[in-house]
Amino acid sequence: MARITAGITTSHVPAIGAAVDHGKTEQDYWKPLFQGYEWTREWIGRERPDVVILIYNDHASAFSLDMIPTFALGCAERFSPADEGFGARPVPIAEGHPDLAWHLAQSLILDEFDITIMNKMDVDHGFTVPMTLMFGEAEAWPVKVVPLAVNVVQYPPPTGNRCWMLGEAIRKAVHSYGEDLKVQVWGTGGMSHQLQGPRAGLINTPFDLSFLDRLTSDPQALRRIPHLEYLREAGSEGIEMVMWLIMRGALGDDVREIHRHYHVPASNTAVGHLVLEALS
Ligand code: DHB
Ligand code: FE
Fold it and tell me: SS3 for 180-228, per residue?
């Protein structure tokens, strides 16, 4: 039987990917950011998950404003890095797990989640930056990946509660998959940041730290945070944090925080990173 062993949350700021691609990780500005991921890279090298269900959002790269699926599941054999305007990042093409992805699609849709099935999808920094943070400059990624793209770009995004319920349904689907697979679920995006308008540059460290704490101490409370509260407290792009609740819903009741990193700023963004072990 497949099982979910751990969850990871991380911001996916594009400048982090550019810092790696241009050899800047040792610079004073970037070093403390990358140091906070060293523990995880060592840990994941020992953990060796078979598959990552990578929850992220597309930033108008694979989807234009012509078509905006709320939840888009990557069922393809492979996923190429998207060209976001400066050429595709020099990172490996990610290998999918179509059999698990189709099983997820069936289980989720029969569980009444309206999932869009993606048989071709390029993946942008929301996907590639977390992969780089966890696995460095690899020749090939050491895991298979099932991407799940969530709309947090065009109003209305799904609620945190809906995201949590989707996570629970992902858990059920993984647990009903016959093959013995070690699966991790990653929730990316956040933390507080606003990229435009009069409040551009907004960072709210107390809100971010409370969110990190509550993922283990009081996760049920996070389900009830309304969109307006994300907007007010975490800035217009802080809404990306609803994706962390898909990850958290997928981990089950019993989790333990085994690593935390919080760093301000990376570009204009508060970076938050957790590793949560699933105990049940
Ligand atoms: C930026 C973009 C993002 O998608 C994000 O999550 C954080 C920062 C940026 O353009 O700086
Ligand atoms: Fe983003």
Answer: CCEEEEEEECCCCCCCCCCCCCCCCHHHHHHHHHHHHHCHHHHCCCCHH
Q: Is residue 204 in some structural domain?
A: no
Question: What pLDDT shows up at residue 280?
Answer: 87
Residue 154 in any domain: the answer is yes
pLDDT band at 43 (very low <50, low <70, confident <90, very high): very high
65 lies in some domain: yes
pLDDT at 69 over 90: yes
Within 13 Å of residue 177, how many CA atoms lie on the same side as its CB? 27
Q: Is the pLDDT of residue 276 over 90?
A: yes
Can you give the CATH number for the domain in which 173 is found? 3.40.830.10
Structural domain boundaries, residue 135: 3-195+216-270
Distance 169 CA to ligand 1 centre (A): 28
CA-wise closest residue to 86 among 32, 22, 146: 22
Q: Give pTM, 2 decimals.
A: 0.98
Is 125 a known active-site residue?
yes
Indicate which residue of 59, 103, 125, 263 is catalytic.
125
In-domain check, residue 189: yes
User: What is the torsion angle, in degrees rounded to the nearest 10, for the CA atoms of residue 115, residue 116, residue 118 and residue 123?
Assistant: -80
pLDDT tens figures, 208-225: 999 999 999 999 999 999
- Tokens 């107390």 sit at which residue? 206
14 close to ligand 1 (CB < 6 Angstrom): yes
How many domains does the chain divide into?
1
CA of 175 to the centre of ligand 1 (A): 33
The per-residue pLDDT of the chain, averaged, comes to: 98
